[in-house]
Structure formats: structure tokens, C-alpha cells
Amino acid sequence: MIAALQGDLHTSDGVGKVFFREDSSPDILRRAAEHINRAFPEDDEINPTHAVVVTWVDVTTHGLESRGDSGIKKRNTFQLVIASLETTSYAIVLYPRDGIKFSSMLVGDTNVIMHAGFSKGLVQGFFGSSKGPHYHTTNDNEQSVRALAEETNSGLRGVWVYEIGTSPYFSNVAPGEVPELPTEAPPQEDADAYEESSAARRPVYTDGQTEIHPVQFQPQNREVVEVDDPIINVDVFSYNLGSCANNRNKCSKFGECRDYANGYCCHCISGFYGNGIQCVAEGKPQRVNGKVHGRVFVGRSPSPVEFANIDLHSYIVVNEGRAYVAISDLPETVGPSLEPLVSISGAIGWAFALEHPGFKNGFSIIGGEFTRQAEVTFMPGNEKLIIRQEFKGIDEHDHLIVSTNLDGQVAEVPLGSTIKLDPYSEIYQYNNNLITSSSTRDYVVTLPDGSRETRRYQWRETISFNGCYHSETLRDMKPTQMLSMDHIFAIYDPGQRLIRFALTSKIGDINGQPEENPCLTGRHGCDTNAVCKVGEGATFTCQCAAGFSGDGRTCYDNDECREDPQRCGPNAICNNQPGTFRCECEEGYQFGSDQRTCIKVDRPVDHCEAGTHTCSPHAQCSYTGGSSYVCTCLQGFTGDGRSCQDIDECQQSRCHSDAVCYNTEGSFTCQCRPGYSGDGFQCLPGRPKTRCEAHRESVLGVSGPRGPRPPIGAYIPSCDDNGQYEPMQCHGSTGHCWCVDQNGQEISGTRTGPGSRPMCIDHNTGPSPIGPRPRPDVDALTPGTHLLFTQSGRIEHVPLEGYDMKKNDAKPVLHLPEKVIIGVAYDCVEKMVYWTEITSPSISKANIEGGEPTSVISSGSLESPEGIAIDHLGRTMFWTDSAKDHIEVASLDGSNRRVLINTDLVNPRAIIADPSNGNLYWADWNRKAPKIETSYMDGSNRRVLVRDNLGLPNGLTYDPRSSQLCWADAGTHKLECMDPGRGSRSTVLERIQYPFGMTAFGNNIYYTDWQRDAVIAVDRYASRESDEFQPQKRTRLYGIATAYAQCPAGQNYCSGNNGGCSHLCLATPNGRSCKCPDNAAQVGCVEREY
Fold it and tell me: Nidogen G2 beta-barrel domain: from which residue to which, for each copy (predicted)?
């Protein structure tokens, strides 16, 4: 048992209240963690996972207080929070400075002092029950009770923290260790009383109990007070009984704190509206995002339709009172039946409704933190649905966050029906921290056969919130207001599994008001980032919202960061946002407890990742924790890791006796001597002439007195030591030079005049190194490599440490809450991330070092872009469109679009480019005939690579280092690889679940999985899963790509000067093609092939 304040207390006079609830919201758990960690600074950081909150507000005694009674009852206010995690629990007791008005009471004729503490109650023993262990935080002196609000054991006045063990055990009670107050030190004798040894901090019970202070009073009649109201939501830790001096940071950055006789309140500054804790700019459009969960019975169906974590997005044109709401991924078995419930979005309309003069919308009164619960009863079937919405305030992107839960039964609306809802009004009644409304609504259903039905449902709702009653704002709130809704629209799209609502809201007098003023009709012509100000009669003015400038008809965003680069303070970065800005701490810093000041974070240094290690260039650096690491020489080298010497394998006589051994760093090669042929391990006499040697001899075949002499002016080919054509050939007489392929054929467009030399790529790789080779897991990695993956509404990244995911450092790169992002690719040259999205089909990009997203190809010309690939050498991008059944290419700025493939495609999705070799690969998950295909990057030489034993090939990746093309199949549940040049195919992993996207880096393949909502790492050489990362947002993961700190080595014929092409340069294995965009006639383009 826990006694926050034990006494004969009651609430029967209607003034005092007791609230309790379980609350595991992130904000509550964060505040609890702050108190616990401040109270126990020497312990490991604690992060509770659950909390129970009990609040006593203005409670008094049954009788008179024992001292100083003047006929006016004194009242106490205090709070208890039990914060728990898996291994232990903590009690946090809060006593506001003005909250303890009495400390004793009269019980009969006896003056009894109140107490606080912990007790296990009666425990059963061998000889009956006895009083169990107990721990008291007060004694028989009234001063000890009053001190609860003045002193502390947690470093914050009036806040007491205790570790209390885990139910059902009562093993110990450990008080907080910080009795000092931040502004004034307690008297020495009091401070000494708190100094305890480490043994005292963890008391051990002797003979069944540890008694800190003797107990002299135990009430005989205990009373438990419950409030049977599931939507009560008293703000934990917030009494507003302090002053602005210590609470100013609780107000919005667009708010100000004001002191009142009984406490303080926050108010929004001019140009903003809200409750002071949450403030938004007047006239600025608002966004609302959240998740929807549901368990809904449709009609008389015996089985419910269940859905979880589906997205809700809303956009509100505030100066028109117009709200647009979309809920995605709704099954068609329930989607049409939710169309009549436009009031799912009604709270959003109420919060940002157009205001008649003298009236306030919801956000203006209570801000963005409230709970709304509605009960819908459909007539005449009496189906009932409960809608519960938790509005959780404004996030770091200035978006209002809401969680919606639907539970119950709805009247069935058949698929293919349409719904018509007439304008309606409902009266909102305001009373303290509760707002209620009710109404009856009619709607018309046009069934698929054309018949019509008029239906009806009853609606009751309550909105609970925690307001500040010290100021006049809530006291002056009108007790009734009327919300009017019109221009109502609701439709379910079965193809996209999406339901859309739209409505216009106004708040005003219950008796109605004329709406001739354009500000109240929406016909004002003000910019969407402006507020419409009502004037006399039909006059009005347009005024740009805070953070914007202009004449009101046209408004431009102000760049606050450019105007004042130092506004965020030291060690912080200012990021401009539309109408506002956001401060972020620099790397190595984090926000302090005030959430505004950036303080240095002392973290261990991973020298391997930072590149500050002292390992040899021929060694692998392995991080071992803290700031430690070890160095290990790569295979083919020997040493201590900090100094590595090459092993000369030629000293070991590894080659044939008729071969020459060439030692190389970390390896060696064997080459048969002239006159012999073989691989260097086996050499046989004689060797057939190569094409180059035969060509050369045919030219030199004319003999003269001094041996073979070529004709005057003839071209003599140059051969290397292996008899292969040198990549650059020159004419000895004319001085012209040109590049040739491995067959000696001139590559068009490379010939130069005398005195100039072309840059020719060597197609002849020479003899391959013969082991030992560096292991695949010891490639030196450049710092800063990480994974990018997409979810609906965001792109996130996970840094890589070697091949391991640094999961604790994962975070979103870009929030696009209104978008469904599918494919992602990375341009290592400009450090740009590219993505496809299908909500308003488009391709966009953004610099990962900062900057706004930029549209590359806008909606209208795309239908369903999914996979995307980047040629960082030729500066082009390729993508698949699963609706058009196309594969297209364009320059990276979106110009020069060209359709490469538009035949024999059914469901193209994944696409991969291999720029160095000029190849393109893609997967078609056509269920009837799935396949994996390839072509040159200009679309020529198309052919099927894999057709057999495929199911649903979703993911695709290519590793140029090992020349392996790998795919993940959601139908066969396999991860497989092959060498496209040789056709060899192997299984890497079986029994995977539902892969979507994939990428390769070093040893590992990383793929996203729809069933696990995770990024999975697979060691493809060990054929095992090595790691898993589940992002905080548990929704489907789509595309994934590797973002390299430095571009991979390689080049192609389009690398320089666009390959000499006027528009598109598309690489092939042996050259390039200059291609025209599809609008060639308009741009004056000529195609050529080299």
C-alpha cells in the first residue's frame, strides 16, 4: 500500500475530486524518467514503460481541521505516479507548494497528524497475520507533513521519488538521493538528515519490518474514491500552482507565461492562437497525422473487420475552414460503411473551424491535447460504434498528432453505393474540463441498383482536456457554441483502399448569424497562408500569417534562419520551415532538460568509424566498445595490425616451372612463359596466336633485306605482353590515336588528332589474381555509409558500422506524412536521395545534408512509379511504372524522358543499374509468369535471365564486386543469387517471410520485410540472418538503398562530357548510345550509337 497523504479525506462536498488512470504516453513516460533519473544520478538511466496516475484535487476532511479553522474548509492537492518497467517500479509523489493547506485533523476529540509512506499491510505467518514491512516518509510532527511541499529527495521542490521493487514483492524502499534544491540550500541540520550511506539507501528488513518513523495513527475506516469516467485526462505533473519563474519553458515558443494569484497560465502571443502551451500561426494551413485502429462488425456479420496502424492524414485550409481527411489501407469490407461517419474528422473541423466574431474554435480554447469519445447509434438497427481519439499535441514538424480507435458495429453500406450528407449543426456545451455535444443526423444512400434509402444515426460525444483556470480565458468561455458543417464530401475508393472526407466548419452563436462577410463564406481570395480579418459589413482584410510576408493576397515564407543565424543559440542548427523554423543540436550535442539549450554529449569514440584509428592500410579495424579497437592484418599480409607487410607468395614456388610468378599486394599471379600456354599452374609448350598477334603479323608479313617490313603508311596494331590489343591504338604515320574494344574494333567518337591522346578504358583485365585473397568481410569501409529505407510518409536511415547496423542511431531523414513512398535510390555524387511515391504519383529528390524536397517529375505523367535506380556515372535515372507497364529513363533533373521498355511487362517493380558494365536489371512479379530480365542501359539486347522456380520476385540488387545479381522472392520465400554472365544460380537463405526491397553492401544483403516490419541483414557468405532492425514506426517498409560516403570505383563511356551526346547518354558493355527523349522532334535531337 502507498499512502501519498493518509488521513480521513473525502470528496462528498462536490468540490474535491480524485482522478486515476493508466497512462503510457511518451510524454508522461519521459517526465517520469526525468524525475527518476534526477533522483538517482549515480544509477543507470531508467526509462519506464508504463505509468499509473492518481490525482487528489481540493480534497478536505469529514470534520473540521484541527488547527486554525475559520469556517472555510482548507483543501489539499497532491499526486501519485507509479512508473514501472520490467524489473522494478518507482513511486513519484508530488506536493505543490500551495497544495498542502492542512496537515492534521480531528478524529472525535483527538488531534491526529496525517502521514505518508509505504506498507505491505498484513502478512500471513505461521501463527496468524501480522503487520508487514512499512516505510514512513513523515513522523508525528506536523512540520514533517508541511515539509513535503517544501523539501525534496529528487532535486526538485515538492517532488519525492522512491524505488519500491516489483509486485507482488515488497523487498525494499529506496528514497531518492538528491535532497538539495537547485536555488537554495536547506539548513545544515536538514541536509544532514538526508545523508545516508549506500547501505541505508537500500534498507534491509529485520524481523519482518524496517521502521523509519514510529506510527501512532492508523485510520479505522479506509475509503477508496473512484471516478467512473473513462475519458478523464488530468495532466500529470501539471498543477499550475507554481509561478512563471520556474515554469516558463512549459509554454510554447510562440507563447508567454503570466502569473496569477493562484498560479500561472500560458497564453499565445499576438498572431498565434491556442492554449499557450500549443500555439499555431493565425491563417496558416495545418496538418494532422496519425494512426487508426479498429475492430468493427459490419451489419449482421458475425466476424469483425480488424485493422491496425493505418494512416490518417489531414490538411486544413484554415482561412476557409475547409478540412480534407484521408484514411488509407481500409479493407473494402468496411470502407463503404464508414462513409456516413464524416464526424470521424469532425473533431479536426471543430478544432480549426472558422470563427464568428466573439467565438472560438477548439484549438483556440484548449490547444492540441485532448481526448474525444463519441458514441454512434444507427437507426433502426441499433448498431453502436465507439470512436475514441487521443489528440497528442503538435510534433516537431508542427503537425497535430492523433490516434483513433473504432470499436463496435456499423450499419452496412454495400460496395459501390454513394453517400450524400446534408449540412448540419450541433451545439457544443462547455463546462470546466469537459465539452459535450449530441445530435441526430440523416444521410441518403444510393445503392448500386440505383435505389435510395434515407438513414439516420444518433451522435453523442465528450471532449475532455486539462485547462488553466487561473486566467480569465476559460472562465469567460461561452457555455454554448454552435458548430456548423457544410460542403460535406465522403467517398471510399476500393482501388486505393482509401476513404476521403471533406467538410467546411464554422463556430458561432446558437441562434445563428448572417454570413455575408467573405471571411465567413470562404470567398475572400486571401492567400492560403493568410488570415482573413472581418471588417464592418462585408468588408475584410487579408493579413499574412506569422512567419510569412506579403500583401495578404500573396504571401511568401520568411527565412528566419537567414534573418538571424544565431537565433537557435550555440551548438545548434537553425532549419527554416514554412512559416516557422526548427532548432536542432549539432552532432555531439543534445537538448538539455529545458529542451532549448544544446549541451555536449560525452560519448565513446568509434575510431574505426571516425577514421581516426592507427591501423595499417592493409589491416581491418574492429571496434570493441568504448573507445577501443583492434587491428588485424588482411590475408596476404603479416604483422601486428598497425604495421602489415606483404607476404611474397612467389617465394613458395606456387606457379608451374614454365611460368613466371608476379607478386602483388596481398596476392600473386602466375603467367606461362612465352611459347607456353595455360593458367600458370599448368603450362604446355606452344600457344595459339591471339587475334592481335595474328593481325600484327599479317601487316608485317612483307619481308625485305632486313626482315619484315610493313607497307609505307600502314597501321600496325599494338599488342600487350599477353597478346591482347592495347586499349589505345595509334597510327605511326598520321599521329592519330583512338580507343578499341577487346576485339580491336575502333570505338566511335574516340579518335583524336596528332598530339592528343584519348582516355581509353582497358577492357583487358589481365590474368586474375590467384589466392589468397582478402576475405569479403575485410574490405576497408569509408566513414558515413548507411542504409536508406522508406515507409509510408517518411524516409529513414540506419548508419552502418562495418557491415553492422547502428540501430540506436537510426532516425528519419525526411518526413512526408501525406505521401506513400515506395522506391528509393541514392546519388553518391551530389549526395541526393531520390524516391518514388504513388499518392500523387511523382519522383522527387532531396539532399541528405539538408534542404527542401524538390519535385523531379510531377504527377500527371506518371501512374504508379515504384522501383528507381541511379546511374551516377551517366547522370541518369531509371524507373518502373507498374500501371503503365513501362520502364523509363530520364536525366537526373527530370528532363529528356524516354520509354525504354513498353512490351511484355505486367508488374515491373524492382530495377537495378550496373553503370560500370552498362547493364540494366529488373524484376516482373507477374504471378502467371514471373521473371527477371536484363538489357543494356539503352534498352537493347533485352533477354530473360531467370524464369523458372520464381514466385513473387520483389527485391533486386547487384553487387559489382562479386558480379552477383541477387533477388528476394516473397512467393518461394527464398533469397537467391546468380552471376548474370555465367548463369550459375545459388540459394543464400530459405524460409524468409515477405521481402519487398533489398540492397547489398560488403558481406551483407539487407532487405525489408512486410510481415516483420523490419530491415533484415543477411550474411550471404555464411548463409544466415545476422541482424534485424525494427523502426519505431511499425508499418510496412518498402524500398531500401545503400548511401555510400564515397562513390564506388568505376567509369563508363558516359562519365565525361555526357559521352559527347546532346541529350541522353546510355552506357552499353562496349560503348554507349546517344538517345533522344520521346519529344525528339521538339528538341532537335539526333540519335547515334558508338
Answer: 284-517
- Using alpha carbons, select from 171, 77, 501 the residue that is nearest to residue 327: 501
CA distance 304 to 782: 52
983: phi > 0 → left, psi -120 to 50 → alpha, else beta; which? left
Instruction: List 50's β-bridge partners, or say none.
Output: 84
- Residue showing cell 512567419: 547
Task: Give phi and psi for 995, each to the nearest 5.
Answer: -75, 155
Half-sphere exposure of 688 (CA within 13 A, CB side): 2
Beta bridge partners of 1007: 998, 1016
Written as one letter, the residue type at 424 is Y
Lowest model confidence (mean pLDDT) among 413-422, 490-499, 1048-1057: 1048-1057
Residue 572 confidence class, pLDDT cut points 50, 70, 90? confident
Give this prediction's pTM.
Answer: 0.41
Q: Map residue 188 onto helix, strand or coil.
A: helix
Which residue type is seen at 328? S
Q: How many CB atoms lie within 10 A of CB 985?
A: 14
What are the φ/ψ torsions at residue 143 (nearest 5 degrees)? -60, -30
> Do residues 94 and 241 lie in contact, with contact meaning Cβ atoms separated by under 8 Å?
no
DSSP secondary structure, 505-571, as one string:
EEEE-TT-----SHHHHT-S---TTEEEEE-STT-EEEEEPTTEEESSSSEEE--HHHH-TTTT-TT
Report d(CA 265, CA 258) in Å as an integer.
Answer: 6
Q: Are strands 76-84 and 498-508 parallel, antiparallel or unpaired?
A: unpaired
Q: Is the previous residue joined to 380 through a cis bond, with omega within 30 degrees of 0?
A: yes
DSSP 780-815: ---TT-EEEEEEEEEEEEEEEETTEE-GGG-EEEEE
Q: Among residues 363, 326, 257, which one has the least CA distance to residue 489?
A: 326
Which three-class secondary structure state does DSSP give residue 768?
coil
Residues paired with residue 265 on neighbouring β-strands, in sequence order = 258
Q: How far apart are CA 642 and CA 631, in angstroms?
A: 6
Mark out the alpha helices in 742-862 (DSSP H runs): none
- C-alpha 947: how far from chain center: 37
Residue 317's CB is within 10 A of a number of other CB atoms, namely 17
Residues listed for the chain: 1090
> Pairing between strand 628-633 and 619-625?
antiparallel
C-alpha cell at 602: 560525452
For residue 931, the Cα-to-chain-centroid distance in whole angstroms is 33
354 contact partners, CB below 8 Å, separation of at least 6: 319, 320, 321, 361, 504, 505, 506, 507, 519, 520, 522
Buried b (16+ CB within 10 A) or exposed e, 365-381: bbbbbbbbbbebbbeee
Q: What are phi and psi of 172, to 5 degrees?
A: -165, 165
Question: 667-672 and 659-664 as β-strands: parallel, antiparallel, unpaired?
Answer: antiparallel
Sequence-distant (6+) residues with CB within 8 A of 12 are none
Residue 646: strand pairing partners: 637
633, 593, 629, 589: which is closest to 612 by C-alpha? 629
* 3-class secondary structure per residue, 95-155: CCCCCCCCCEEEECCEEEECEEEEECCEEEECCEEEECCEEECCCCCHHHHHHHHCCCCEC
Instruction: Answer yes or no: are the C-beta atoms of 582 and 568 closer than 8 Å.
Output: no
Query: How far, in Å, CA of 372 to CA of 387, rounded?
Result: 8
Cell numbers describing residue 1006: 539487407
Cα distance between residue 1022 and residue 27, in whole Å = 43
pLDDT higher than 70, residue 511: yes
Grid coordinates standing for 178? 538528491
Sequence-distant (6+) residues with CB within 8 A of 314 are 287, 288, 289, 323, 324, 325, 326, 345, 348
* Each residue's pLDDT tens digit, 444-494: 999 999 999 999 998 889 898 888 877 777 667 788 888 988 889 899 999
Grid cell digits, residue 609: 568509424
User: With 0-12 CB in 10 A as exposed, 13-18 as middle and 19+ as buried, what is 740?
Assistant: buried
Q: CB atoms < 10 A from the CB of 744, how many?
A: 16
Which residue type is seen at 925? W
